[in-house]
Amino acid sequence: MIEKTYGQIIHRASDDSYVITKNGMPYHVYPYAVEFAEEWDAVFAYAEAHPECVTERRATLRCAHADTGRTRGEHTRRTR
Predict the structure, then answer these.
(1) 15 and 29 in contact (C-beta within 8 Å)?
(2) Contacts of 2 (CB under 8 A, 6+ apart)
(3) pTM beyond 0.85
(4) Which of the pair, 46 or 63, is modelled with greater confidence?
(5) Largest distance between two CA atoms of the chain
(6) pLDDT, tens digit, for every residue of 1-30?
(7) Which strands make up the sheet holding 54-57, listed edge to edge?
(8) Helix/strand/coil (H/E/C) assignment for every residue in the chain
(9) pLDDT by residue (tens digit) across 23-62?
(10) Which pLDDT score, from 0 to 100, does residue 45 have?
């Protein structure tokens, strides 16, 4: 089996997903979706074998708000 090379990847600790570069564009690989399972397994194996290529990204305040169930516009909308 030929191992894929992902270069630098970002591990998002808040949801255990990865952000990789695929076809020159950022690509979010989410672990709990069936359609991404094979890709996530490959990225996870690469990250385990090449920890020097992994940047850990913790949730920021802005990211933490995304977990509240609000829509994107509600994060910036002022209420009176």
Answers:
(1) no
(2) none
(3) no
(4) 46
(5) 59
(6) 555 778 889 999 889 999 999 888 999 999
(7) 25-29, 17-22, 9-12, 54-57
(8) CCCCCCCCEEEECCCCEEEEEECCEEEEECCCCHHHHHHHHHHHHHHHHCHHHEEEECCCHHHHHHCCCCCHHHHCCCCC
(9) 889 999 999 889 889 999 999 999 999 999 999 987 654 5
(10) 93
75's CB contacts (< 8 A; 6+ apart) are 62, 65, 66
Buried b (16+ CB within 10 A) or exposed e, 23-50: eeeebebebeeeebeebbebbbebbeee
- Round to whole Å and give the CA distance between 20 and 11: 9
Taking the C-alpha atoms of residue 51 and residue 9, their distance in angstroms, rounded to an integer, is 10
